[in-house]
């Protein structure tokens, strides 16, 4: 028996559609901008920042001290009640399921501001059972408080067990919006030997071959997150949901943040987290398609109006598959321009 529930929130697929996610409208979510809602100054700036970002998220979990958890929840509710920016998503990251705060986070937020919140981000998801639990809880609370549209779920992929179960998590509920890589918790869960939040590591690389004229051999750094991001993207795209890179913690190294986000974008992620205001612009630039790529994609679409056949453009072979690649880029460019 299949454990996959029917998808209820999206239109049925058109016959012959290449893949489910291709037919969904592209809603821009290039950055999920985190703010700490227990800090009054941050709440005061929420609407102003909200107009600059695609998604604003009130963080209740890690980085919020235990003694400020209730204040953060109340602060988020205050921001959500006043929220009127239709073009920006309003999300919250609640505390994890086995924490003392999770139940009150979800219950109080849906009761007080359930019609304002688009997505609940659930940390430390280990398997589909975690999503099923939140799914049912949201269903009960939505019914009780007459919430007008379903609140979606975004999972953080940040435990070794979660990575093992990533496909089942992605398919666990029609409420699934997407998934973010959580490199900090994942590093700890896996026993990786790092103290960094995302990004590369100077020790993780391959040494170039020895040669008589090369007494000092260079270590070429590699991306320690490549495997997990690729696995997450496959799981998300197969389920018709979105994949995101998570946090990049070194605020002193914008170039490295940009490079990490760009790897994720190329591999299929649609956005990343911004934890510092300057990462908003980095994410906006990286997760918007490159103008030269857009021009080339539009040439492909124009040369193959029905998406079939084979043509040569600038010496490069194009066919049905590159037409689909071009459509991904052109659709995103259209959403950015809108
Ligand atoms: C995010 O929550 C992370 O652990 O990286
Ligand atoms: Mg985490």
UniProtKB/TrEMBL annotation:
CC cofactor:
Mg(2+)
The UniProt entry's GO biological process terms, in alphabetical order, are: oxaloacetate metabolic process
- Name the InterPro entries for this protein: Aldolase/citrate-lyase_domain, Citrate_lyase_beta/mcl1/mcl2, Pyrv/PenolPyrv_kinase-like_dom, Pyrv_kinase-like_dom_sf
List positions binding Mg(2+): 158, 185
Coiled-coil spans in chain: none
List residues binding substrate. 93, 158
- Which keywords label this protein? Lyase, Magnesium, Metal-binding
Q: Which domain of life is it from?
A: Bacteria
Q: Which GO terms describe its molecular function?
A: lyase activity; magnesium ion binding
Q: Where is the HpcH/HpaI aldolase/citrate lyase domain?
A: 34-270
Can you tell me which family this protein belongs to?
A: Belongs to the HpcH/HpaI aldolase family.
Protein name as catalogued:
Citrate lyase beta subunit
Species source reads Magnetospirillum molischianum DSM 120
């Amino acid at each position: 028996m299949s454990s996959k529930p029917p998808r209820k929130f999206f239109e049925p697929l058109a016959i012959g559609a290449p893949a489910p996610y291709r037919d969904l409208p592209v809603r821009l979510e290039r950055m999920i901008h985190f703010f700490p809602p227990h800090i009054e100054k941050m709440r005061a700036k929420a609407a102003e920042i909200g107009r600059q970002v695609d998604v604003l998220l009130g963080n209740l979990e890690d980085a919020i001290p235990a003694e400020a958890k209730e204040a953060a929840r109340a602060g988020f509710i205050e921001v959500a009640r006043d929220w009127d920016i239709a073009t920006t998503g309003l999300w919250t990251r609640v505390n994890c399921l086995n924490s003392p705060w999770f139940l009150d986070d979800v219950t109080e937020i849906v009761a007080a501001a359930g019609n304002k919140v688009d997505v609940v981000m659930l940390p430390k998801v280990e398997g589909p059972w975690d999503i099923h639990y939140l799914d049912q809880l949201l269903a009960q609370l939505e019914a009780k408080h007459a919430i007008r549209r379903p609140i979606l779920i975004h999972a953080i992929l940040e435990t070794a067990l979660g990575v093992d179960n990533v496909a089942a998590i992605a398919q666990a509920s029609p409420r699934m919006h997407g998934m973010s890589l959580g490199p900090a918790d994942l590093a700890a869960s896996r026993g990786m030997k790092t103290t960094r939040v995302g990004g590369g590591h100077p020790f993780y690389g391959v040494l170039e071959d020895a040669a008589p004229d090369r007494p000092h051999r260079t270590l070429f750094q590699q991306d320690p997150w490549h495997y997990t991001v690729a696995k997450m993207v496959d799981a998300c795209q197969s389920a018709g949901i979105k994949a995101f890179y998570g946090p990049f913690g070194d605020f002193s190294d914008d170039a490295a943040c940009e490079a990490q986000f760009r790897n994720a974008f190329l591999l299929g992620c649609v956005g990343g987290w911004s934890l510092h205001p300057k990462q908003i612009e980095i994410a906006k630039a990286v997760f918007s398609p490159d103008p030269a790529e857009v021009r080339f994609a539009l040439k492909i679409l124009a040369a193959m109006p029905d998406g079939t056949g084979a043509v040569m453009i600038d010496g490069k072979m194009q066919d049905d598959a590159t037409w689909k690649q071009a459509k991904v880029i052109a659709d995103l460019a259209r959403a950015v321009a809108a």
